[in-house]
Automatic annotation (TrEMBL):
Monomer. It comes from Pseudolycoriella hygida. Residues 122-140, 159-172 have a biased composition (Low complexity). Residues 173-189 have a biased composition (Polar residues). Residues 213-477 form the EndoU domain. Residues 85-203 are annotated as: Disordered. This is Endoribonuclease. Belongs to the ENDOU family. Its cofactor is Mn(2+). Transmembrane segments: none annotated. InterPro entries: ENDOU, EndoU-like, EndoU_C. PROSITE patterns: ENDOU. Pfam families: XendoU.
Length: 477
C-alpha cells in the first residue's frame, strides 16, 4: 500500500512540476511557417515572478481535476459572449486537439484563457501594461500582418482588437507616402502641374473651312440664272426716274417704278401662286398669325410649284453635294417649308413673322417698315396706292432676264430710306439664290454671278425655339 501511494504521488508531482514560465513558453507553434500565418498581437505585460517552487500534493490533485474538466467538449454557442478557441492550421502536429471548441469570454470584456497546444496547463491571459517586457499571445485566427496597413477602405470585422488600425489611420496612410520607402508593387506618383506657357486648344487660330468656295458659288448661280425660264423682265416697263439719296426727303420719282400687264403676271405659274399668299399675313409683327387650312394649302401649292422647276432642282442638287439635304426629295421640300414658312416672334412673344412674309412681302415693327424685297409684291402695292417709289440709289442690269435696283420708297406713308430687290426674275430663282446662300454663307456676304455680273447676297439668321431660320435676305449692290 505504501509503495502504491509513493508511486501515485511521484506520478502527480512529475506531471504537475511545470512552472508558469514553462507553460507560456509552450504556446509557440512547432512549425514557424504556420505561426507566421496568424496575426500576432503584441502587448506589454508585467513579467511573472520567477519561481522554482513545485506544486504541493493537494494542489497537484486540484489541478489534475481542473484539467480534466476543461477537456470536456463544449457545445457550440451563438451567444456574443463566447469565442471559438484557436484551431491549429492544417499541417500542424496537434491540429485535432482543440478543433470545434468554444471558450467563454469574460463578461468584463477580457479575452478568455488559452489552452496550451502541448500541455494541459491553463494559462490565464494577462492584462496589457506599460512594462518593456513583451509577451506574445494569440486571440483569434487573422490574416498575416503586413508591413504596411492595407491601402484602401478597411475591412469590416466582427470585433475590434487593440491592434486593429483605425479608419483614420488607413486613410492617412493611403493619402501620405510612407517615410521609409514605398511598399512592394505600390508607386506614389506626384501630380505634375501643367506648364502655364502651353497654349490651350481653344487658343489656336484654326481657319474655318467654307462649305462652298466663292468660285463654286459663282459658277452655281450663273447656272441657275441660265436655267431661268420664267423671267418677265422683257415684259416689264421700268421707270427709274430721278436718282436720290437715303437721307433725302424729296420725291424724285412721281410716277410708278413698274408697269406690267396683268395677263403676263398670271401666265407664270409660280407668280400666280405667290400672289395668292399676299392676303394670308398681318402687316404688324406684333399681331399673331393664324394659318388656316386654306392658307396651308396655298403654301404647299407654291412650294410644290417651285420645286418642280429646273432652277430649284439644280439648287437642291448642289446642297445635296454639300451634305445639307439627302437624295430624298422630301428633305428638299421640308427644308423650304422650314426655312421660309416657320412662324416666329420678333418681339413681345407675338408669333407674327416668317421669312417668307419678311422677304417677299413687307412688315411693320415699332412704326418702321421692314422687308419688301420682291418686285411682284411691290408692283401690286404700287397699283393699290400703298407703295410710293421715291427714286433710285443704284441699279444693275442683268442682261435680258432681270435687274437689281437699290431705291428709296414709302409704304403706308412710312418711309424706308434704303431698300434693294430683283426686278423681272421668277420667284423660284430668288428662293433658290437666297436658300443656297443661307445654307452655305449665313450672316455673311455670299458672292454670286448673274449674267456675268459679280454681285452679293446678304442673309441673316433668326433663331427661334431651337430652329435656325431666315430672318432676312436681299441682294447687295
Amino acid at each position: 500500500m505504501k509503495l502504491f501511494l509513493i508511486f501515485w504521488m511521484t506520478f502527480l508531482l512529475k506531471d504537475c512540476n511545470v512552472s508558469e514560465a514553462q507553460g507560456l513558453q509552450q504556446l509557440s507553434y512547432a512549425n514557424a511557417d504556420i505561426g507566421q500565418k496568424l496575426i500576432r498581437s503584441t502587448v506589454t505585460t508585467e513579467p511573472p515572478p520567477p519561481t522554482t517552487r513545485k506544486t504541493s500534493f493537494f494542489g497537484g490533485i486540484r489541478n489534475y481535476f481542473v484539467r480534466k474538466s476543461t477537456e470536456a467538449p463544449i457545445v457550440t454557442s451563438t451567444e456574443p459572449n463566447v469565442v471559438r478557441a484557436i484551431t491549429p492550421l492544417p499541417g500542424s502536429s496537434s491540429s485535432t486537439t482543440t478543433s470545434g471548441r468554444m471558450v467563454p469570454r469574460n463578461p468584463a470584456g477580457n479575452a478568455p484563457p488559452i489552452m496550451s497546444q502541448t500541455s494541459n496547463i491553463v494559462v490565464p491571459r494577462v492584462t496589457p501594461s506599460t512594462s518593456s517586457t513583451t509577451t506574445t499571445t494569440t486571440s483569434r485566427p487573422k490574416p498575416p500582418q503586413e508591413d504596411f496597413p492595407p491601402l484602401g477602405p478597411p475591412r469590416r470585422q466582427n470585433s475590434v482588437s487593440s491592434t486593429t488600425p483605425s479608419t483614420t489611420t488607413l486613410h492617412s496612410v493611403w493619402s501620405t507616402p510612407p517615410r521609409n520607402g514605398n511598399p512592394p508593387n505600390v508607386q506614389f506618383i506626384p501630380q505634375q502641374p501643367s506648364p502655364s506657357n502651353v497654349p490651350q486648344p481653344s487658343t489656336f487660330n484654326i481657319p474655318k473651312i467654307e462649305i462652298a468656295s466663292n468660285s463654286e458659288l459663282e459658277v452655281l448661280t450663273e447656272e441657275l440664272f441660265n436655267k431661268e425660264a420664267s423671267s418677265l423682265f422683257e415684259k416689264i416697263a421700268i421707270d427709274y426716274q430721278g436718282r436720290t439719296q437715303s437721307s433725302a426727303l424729296t420725291d424724285e420719282a412721281p410716277r410708278p417704278l413698274l408697269t406690267v400687264n396683268e395677263t403676263d403676271l398670271e401666265s407664270i405659274n409660280s407668280i400666280k401662286l405667290i400672289r395668292k399668299l399676299y392676303n394670308n399675313y398681318e402687316l404688324d409683327t406684333m399681331t399673331n398669325e393664324y394659318v388656316t387650312p386654306l392658307e396651308k394649302k396655298e403654301e404647299n401649292d407654291f412650294v410644290d410649284a417651285i420645286m418642280a422647276t429646273s432652277v430649284m432642282r439644280h439648287a437642291m442638287t448642289f446642297l445635296q453635294q454639300k451634305g445639307k439635304v439627302t437624295p430624298d426629295p422630301k428633305t428638299h421640300r421640308d427644308l423650304l417649308k422650314r426655312l421660309w414658312f416657320s412662324l416666329y416672334s420678333r418681339g413681345r412673344g407675338r408669333i407674327g413673322s416668317s421669312a417668307f412674309e419678311h422677304v417677299f412681302l413687307s412688315e411693320t415693327k415699332n412704326g418702321s417698315i421692314t422687308g419688301l424685297h420682291n418686285w411682284v409684291y411691290f408692283h401690286d402695292e404700287e397699283e393699290a396706292g400703298r407703295a410710293d417709289y421715291k427714286g433710285w440709289l443704284k441699279k444693275v442690269e442683268l442682261g435680258r432676264k432681270g435687274a437689281i435696283v437699290k431705291y428709296r420708297f414709302s409704304h403706308n406713308n412710312i418711309n424706308k430710306p434704303v431698300n434693294a430687290m430683283f426686278i423681272g426674275t421668277s420667284p423660284e430663282l430668288e428662293v433658290a439664290l437666297y436658300t443656297v446662300c443661307f445654307e452655305v454663307r449665313p450672316d455673311k456676304e455670299c458672292p454670286i454671278s448673274l449674267g456675268g455680273n459679280k454681285l452679293l447676297i446678304r442673309t441673316h439668321t433668326f433663331r427661334y425655339r431651337g430652329k435656325v431660320l431666315i430672318g432676312s435676305a436681299f441682294p447687295e449692290i
